[in-house]
Amino acid sequence: MIFSGPRPIVCLVTDRHRTAPPDATPAEQRRALLALIADAAAAGVNLVHIRELDLPASDLHALVLAAVALTRGSNTRVVVSDRADVALSAGADGVHLPALGPPVERMRVLGPVGWIVGRSAHSPAELALAATADYVVFGTVFPTASKPGVSGQGISALADATRRVDVPVLAIGGVTIERAKVCSIAGAAGIAAIALFIPSAAGGLGPKIAVEKLREQFTTH
Length: 221
Known about the structure:
It is a single chain. The chain has 221 residues and is α/β, with parallel strands linked by helices. It has one domain (9-219): Aldolase class I (TIM Barrel, Alpha-Beta Barrel). The protein is 39% helix and 16% strand. The chain has helices spanning 16-19, 26-43, 57-71, 84-89, 104-108, 124-129, 155-164, 177-185, 207-219, and strands spanning 9-13, 47-50, 77-81, 94-97, 116-121, 135-138, 169-172, 190-193. Strand 6 (135-138), helix 7 and strand 7 form a beta-alpha-beta unit. Helix 2 (26-43) runs parallel beside helix 9.
């Protein structure tokens, strides 16, 4: 199993628009995001999920190349949302598939030994499609600013998700330090988040403090 170490598995999901100030230029957004990724690797974040869906392929490739260089020599793995081609050409560790994306098995054979294939899921049917992934990101668990108007599915749905698959399930959506413990009790192997790792965001702590506090929550129940 790829993620066989101690819990929690901590995943930073990127959003360069939220990482930099609202008036930042594209170059400033890129620099701010790469600085955050460097801090995440230094803090021991397990997974960086590059989720910049609006970037042209060439810009995404350059960003992933830089992220891979920053995390080289650390325990941090880099996966790219949707774009297995970009992930492979830039030397990333794997790809993260949307809930209704291509089959896990089709993506797995594209990469080398150890190639990570993760998947999002929001329902029992989608969890069935994710059963052979290396990890599943399940949500939205709690209401979150990144998806306004979407009600959280709650802890009971998260607990049900962890029982349906035999791979690590990461909780996403409104997960704060205060909510991390109940996610752990529900069976989550870790969490995935955006704002939690951005110091300037509401509730954001920065990678170092966030990782430290998450580890406390996953080991004290």
